[in-house]
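Problem 3 from the worked examples.
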Amino acid sequence: METMISVHSALELITNHVKSLPVEVMQLEKANGFVLAEDIYAPENVPAFPQSSMDGYAFAFDNNRSDYKIVGEIAAGSKQTFELKQGEAVRIFTGAAVPLAADTVLMQEKALVESDKLTVNDESLNKGTNLRSIGSEIKKGTKALEKGTVLKPATIGFLASMGIAKVKVYPNPSVGILVTGNELRLPGEDLEYGQVFESNSFTLQSALNQLNINNVTIYRSEDNLNQLQTLLSQILEVNDLVLISGGVSVGDYDFTMDALEKCDVNAVFHKIKQKPGKPLLFGTKADKVIFGLPGNPASVLTCFYEYVLPAIGIMTERNVKLQAKKMVLTQEYQKQVGMTHFLKASHNNDLVYLETGQESYKLSSFANANCLAIIPENTSKIESGQEIEVHLFPF
C-alpha cells in the first residue's frame, strides 16, 4: 500500500476495486430512481385494441356522407361490441374500444345530434382521426427500455402501461456508519467540558438519504480497540458499504487501522495528497466497501462527495458523482505544491467565490457553499479571473 497517493490515483483505485451490487427483483412502485439491470421488451401491444382518444362518435369514415345513425354507446372498459354497418355510429368515450368496423372518431364538440341522428360538423375530419391503433404506443416484442436506464416517473408509468409489475434493478447498498470518539455526545445530551456534539453521522445519513439510500444504520464506539474490532466485525457482516468516522490518523487513540486489520480488511490506500481529508482510508473485504473518513466535519463531507459518491455510483450503476464544470475564480489563491485543495465555494453565472472559513472543522462555510473549488496538487497560485474546475453539489 503506497503512502500519500494522488487524488487521481485514489479515484482510479476505487474504480478498480468497487463492483456493482447483485441484481435484485423489485416491485415497480418501489423502483423509482433505480437503474434497470435488464432490457425490457413489451409483453403485449399497447394499446391492445383500437382505442378512442376522444369523447365523441365512432364510425367508418365516408367522405361522401355527413349523417350517421347512432345505434349504441361504448364506455371505457366496456366489453360490449358492435357490428357496425355502413352509415351507423356509436357514442364512444375516451379510452373505450372502437368497433372493428369503425376507423374514425368525431369529437363531440364537432357533432350535431338530434335523437339518433348524428351530423358531422367537421370539414377537416379524415379517416383515422382520434383513433389509437393497436400497438401505436409500442408493439409486442419491441424493446421498450434498455439496460442501464434510470427509472423515473415517466418510465415507471410506461412499464406499468405494459402490465409489468416487477423489474430487475441494481439495488442501493445497505450502509453502516460507525462513529468513534470518547469526546462525542449526541445533540440533546448534556455537554461537559472537553466534549463536543457529534454531527458526522447526521451529515452522512442525510447525504445518503438524498440519494434515496435509506437502509442506513448508525453505530457508535469509544476509542477502544477491542470494542471497535468487535463492532466493526458485526457491521461488516450485514452491510455492503461501511463508513467509519474518526480514528484514521496516527494518534495514540486512533484505533481504526488496527481494528480494520484485525477484521481482515484489505486497506487499498491510506492517505491522499489533499486538503482537507488527507488521512482518508479505502479498503475492501470480499465484496464489502469500507471508507475510513477523517473526524473533522468538513473533511468528512468533502471525502464523501469526492470518493464515497463515485463508489456508490459504481455499486448502483448510477451517475451520482459531482458534476464538474470550469468557472472563473473571483479572487487570488495561493498554496504550496504537493497537495490538492478542495475549497468550499459558491458559484453564480460561471463565477466562483471562495467561502471564508476553510478549516476542516468548520461546517458553517460548507452550509453556505454550493460547490467545491479544485486547486490541483502541482499548482501554487491561482490568479483572480483564472478559470478553475469546480464540482457542483447535487442538492
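Problem 4, a separate protein:
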Amino acid sequence: MHFRHILSALGRHRIAVCLLVLEIAFSCAVVCNALFLIGTRLERMHRPSGADEAHIVQVRVGSIASGLAEATMAQTRTDLAALRAIPGVADVSIVNQTLFGNSFNGTGVGLTDAPNAPTTTVTQYLGNAQLAGTLGLKLVDGRWFKPDEFVSDEQLEGEGATVPVIITRAMAEHFFPGQSAAGKVIYAFGTNRVVGVVDRLVQPRDYGPAESYEYAMLFPVNLSYAQGTYLLRVKDASQRDAVIRAALQALKTDGPLRLISSKYANTLEAARDEYYRNDRAMAWMLVGVCLLLLIVTAVGIGGLASFWVAQRRRQIGIRRAIGAMRSDILRYFQTENFLIATLGIVLGMVLAYGLNLLLMLHYELGRLPGWYFPVGAVTLWIIGQLAVLGPALRASNVPPVVATRSV
C-alpha cells in the first residue's frame, strides 16, 4: 500500500479532512486536561489526614446560655466520663476544630519573635491529654505532653506564655530541614518549645498554599464543651452509628439544657464525604464531558468513513476486480483514518499544552504530566480505529461486480 495514494485521495476532500482533524485535536486537548483535572481531584479527595478516620465519631454540643467557666468545665468532665463509659468506646477527647469542618483556626509561626519577622500560617489544634490517642496520631520524634503541661485557653495566650507544642513532620521539615525538631523553639503563642513530632495531621480544610496542608501543631489545652467538639474513638468501626446514638442520649440525660441533635453528630468518614462532595461532582462532570467528546469524535469519524465508502463504492469494486483482497480494502481505510487521527493528535497535544498553561495561569493548576499525552494519543487512535472498523468492513465486502455497473 502506498501512502502517496492515500494522501492524494485525502487531498480531494480537504475541507472534510480539516474538520475531522480539528475535531480530533479539540477532543485530545480537552480530554488530556480533563483527565488531569480528574486525577488531581481524586488525589485531593484521598489525601491521608493522619487520623484513624474509620474509628472516629464526632459530637458537637451547643451551649444555650453562657455560664460560669468553672461550671462549664465541670460539666465537660462529666460529659467525658459519661461518653467514655459507653460500650465500644476506646477513648474520648475534645478539640477546638475538627477535620473536614467549616472553620480554620490558625496563627502565624516564626523562628524569631522580632517585629516584622516572616511567619507561616499554621493550623492549631487545642485538646486535652486524650486528643492524640483519640485521633490515632503516630509520634515519630520526641515525646507526648506531660500531665502538668496542660493549661487553660486563657493561659495559652497569656503574656509571657511558654506552652510546649507538638508539630507535624511536614512542619518540622519546613522550619528545621535536615534536623530533629524536638527541643527547638518556635514563636506562635509566646515562646513555644517543640517537645514532639507526629507523622501527619492536616488542616481542617484547605487554606493557603498546597504545601502547607500538612502544617499543623497541637497545644495541651483543657477546653470546655462550649469551646470545641467531642471526639470518640470506637473499638469497632461497625458500631459507630450505635455509639453516636448512645452518646447523644448520654449527653441529653446528664447536663443542663443544651443544643444536642443528631445533625451535629457524625462519623469522620461522613465528614470527609461531605467536605469533598463538590470535588466528586466536578470529577463526574468531567468524566461526562470526556465521554461525550469521545462519542462525538467517534461518531464523526465513523460518519465520514461511511460517506467515503459510499462515494468510492465503484472504485473499491474496481480494485477488487483487479485483485485487491478484502484485507487490502480494510487496511486502506484503517490506514487512512490512522493518518487523519495522527494529524489531529499532534495538533491536539499542542493545544493541550497551551490549555494547561492557561489553567496554570488562572487557576493555579499544576503542570500537565508528560505521560498524559501518550495516553490520550493511544486512546484516540483506538477510538478512531474502532469507529472506522464498521465502514471499513462494509467496504471490504463490496463485490467486484460493482465495477461493471454504471456510475
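Solution to problem 4. The chain is about 50% helix and 15% strand. Residues 3-45+278-404 form one domain.
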